[in-house]
Amino acid sequence: MDDNTRTTDFEDFAGTSNGAYVDIIEKLSEEKERLENELRKEFRNARKYVRSHPEESLAYAFMGGLVAGLVLARFFSR
Question: pTM for this structure?
Fold first, then answer.
C-alpha cells in the first residue's frame, strides 16, 4: 500500500511540475534565440569594421601576436 501512495504522489508532482518545466524550456529557448541574434549582429558589425579599416585590424593583430609571443616566451623560459 505504501508503494502505491508514493507512486501516486510522484505522478501528482510530475503532472503539476511538468507545466513549469515547459515554461522554463520555452523561456530558455527564447533567450537562446535572442542571444544568437545579438551575437550575429555583433559579428556582422565586427566584420564591417575590419573590412573598412584593414590597416588598423592588421596592426591590432600584430600587436596581439607580439604580446602573446612575449608572454609565452617568458612563461617557457622559466
Answer: 0.50
